[in-house]
Amino acid sequence: MKTGRFGPFGGQYIPETLMNEIQRLDKAYAYYKKDPEFQAQLKDLLDNYANRPSLLYYAGKMTENLGGAKIYLKREDLNHTGAHKINNALGQCLLAKKMGKTRVIAETGAGQHGVATATAAAFMGLECEVFMGEVDTIRQALNVYRMELLGAKVHAVTSGTRVLKDAVNEAMREWVGRVEDTHYVIGSTMGPHPFPMMVRDFQAVISKEARQQILEKEGKLPSVVMACVGGGSNAMGMFYHFIEDANVRLIGCEAAGRGIDTPQHAATIAKGTVGIFHGMKSIFCQDDQGQIDEVYSISAGLDYPGIGPEHAYLHDIGRAEYIPVKDNEAVEAFEYLARTEGIICAIESAHAVYQAMQIAPRLSREESIIICLSGRGDKDVAAIARYKGRDLHE
Amino acid sequence: MSKIGNAFNNGKAFIGFLTAGDPSIEKSYEFIMSMVQAGADLVEIGIPFSDPIAEGVVIQEANIRALSVHTRLEDVFRLVTMVRKESQVPLVFLTYVNPIYNYGKDTFFAKCKETGVDGVIIPDMPFEERDECAAEAKMQGIDIISMIAPTSKDRIREIARMGEGFLYIVSSMGVTGTRSEIKTNLKDIIDVARTETQVPCAVGFGINTPEQAEKIAAVSDGVIVGSAIVKIIAKYGNDAAAPIYEYVSAMKGAAIKGGA
């Protein structure tokens, strides 16, 4: 197999200007991955700064109410900055420091990865610039201000469709122009090798903890592990240490927006085809000419026309299943979790909660399900209120 | 050597670029012919793409204009056929890899041969991913034109060794677009490349004035100009043929002067 491939997917489809840097990054990561000092520093940051390990919470009320499998929530929403994104941001910023970089750039959709990167950069004394689609800077205005508070410069991207995909384009363009002192902290398991592998490794702490936690609580493995999928970083993190456990079903929930039979969705696996974009061969929503589609989801974090190459591979070999969940279904789960468990989760994570609500009643009480609650929902409250017809603004 | 070599037989070469379908296929044909009459030695035709990550704002906007009139690959091939009826000027495509992959690699390169395209430049397909299309292109005799960047360093030799058609030397860091100054030591890069290959070295990214063209032609085999021409198209729209002719004439003159 060629470098950085997951079956036929992955690769390094990027401009020549970036190749030396990407190869340097690949070598540096391979070294630090095995460096006990780096790993100890990262663990210290995760435990003492980011609040790991995160809880594996038994959702008793939800379990009783649905009347099937026991439901556990992997509480990434309780991490510092409120989402799983900090796991990767700390890892990559620490690596950037080791590589002698003084500046990091990042793309962001909902703003969670931007906030996580700005946080890690502030903490480690790195200059930080974040690229965010203009549309997203409006729907997630609070996160823009948060990043600015943390000392980051936020660029509102006005090219293309002005959302996450365009933010990635613009961050890539910035990196091509200034690579010597700058590391690009890609926020998901996407982009050219080594990013999909590296981001997965930094997020794999989720399933490393969860596997041990469920064995302690239940004495056996769960029947199902689920997560929402945009680019796929919380899902890869949640799946990774369960991949070898053949009896554990892995389910990724993608954004079906207004429905996969409408043009307004971001359901890559359900509706996409194989292509090459953003540095990787994977599955993308695109037209018959290979033009990348404008996609849509109520959730800015899932509003991406592609999926990480390792997910494409897990889908291809039948190891993981991917199910589309619509806006209204995610909102229903968002409200349900708030009322039954007193937890306001991110609208992204609510896509997985909805699917768990469908699956749990069909399983027995002897079985368990783990849902990755990838983030908290504070950022979404105003948008959900508006979705429900309440004229509420931040 | 393919027909691309002919582009370098008339003094230092001038290579002009436009995006197919900006503002229409018929106008792209007219503008290409205008470049050829003004002395362009090779024409680079951009296949419009929704997300051109290696392009600056000027060419991004040309892509948007071309896609807004629904330019399809079939239309771009039709443009090549139109040009081929009138001219034997070497033609290369500038395209991201996804439209090729999506169209079908075999069909794409077969169609290139059938219509008369001589080579392709794929900015998001570095040396390491060449196998993505190398066999399909070779089978049809289409050159894959490799890029060498200011950051290529120890990669220059390997890239040059595999060079076909010409080597595209990227003048500066960053995306396409006009620049007031080009600081990269191009001569050093080209000297290294020439130890490995006979293939000509043309320089692109940022070149827009006759002074730059003359200076760069002096150290290379030709200059590639994209954004400056696309700017003329953006400014004059349907009436860009005459200003393009004037501009390309001046630039070709400067390139020849640089080689003298």
From TrEMBL, chain A:
It is an enzyme of class 4 (lyase). Gene3D superfamilies: 3.40.50.1100. Residues 52-375 form the Tryptophan synthase beta chain-like PALP domain. One of its GO terms (cellular component) is cytoplasm. It comes from the Bacteria. Pathway: Amino-acid biosynthesis; L-tryptophan biosynthesis; L-tryptophan from chorismate: step 5/5. The keyword Transmembrane does not apply. InterPro entries: Trp_synth_b_CS (IPR006653), Trp_synth_beta (IPR006654), Trp_synth_beta/beta-like (IPR023026), TrpB-like_PALP (IPR001926), TrpB-like_PALP_sf (IPR036052). Keywords: Amino-acid biosynthesis, Aromatic amino acid biosynthesis, Isomerase, Lyase, Pyridoxal phosphate, Tryptophan biosynthesis. Tetramer of two alpha and two beta chains. Belongs to the TrpB family. This is Tryptophan synthase beta chain.
From TrEMBL, chain B:
It comes from Megasphaera cerevisiae DSM 20462. Pathway: Amino-acid biosynthesis; L-tryptophan biosynthesis; L-tryptophan from chorismate: step 5/5. Its EC number is 4.2.1.20. The active site is at E44, E55. It catalyses: (1S,2R)-1-C-(indol-3-yl)glycerol 3-phosphate + L-serine = D-glyceraldehyde 3-phosphate + L-tryptophan + H2O. Tetramer of two alpha and two beta chains. Pfam families: Trp_syntA (PF00290). Belongs to the TrpA family. InterPro entries: Aldolase_TIM, RibuloseP-bd_barrel, Trp_synthase_alpha_AS, Trp_synthase_suA. The alpha subunit is responsible for the aldol cleavage of indoleglycerol phosphate to indole and glyceraldehyde 3-phosphate. Keywords: Amino-acid biosynthesis, Aromatic amino acid biosynthesis, Lyase, Tryptophan biosynthesis. GO terms for cellular component: cytosol. This is Tryptophan synthase alpha chain. PROSITE patterns: TRP_SYNTHASE_ALPHA (PS00167).
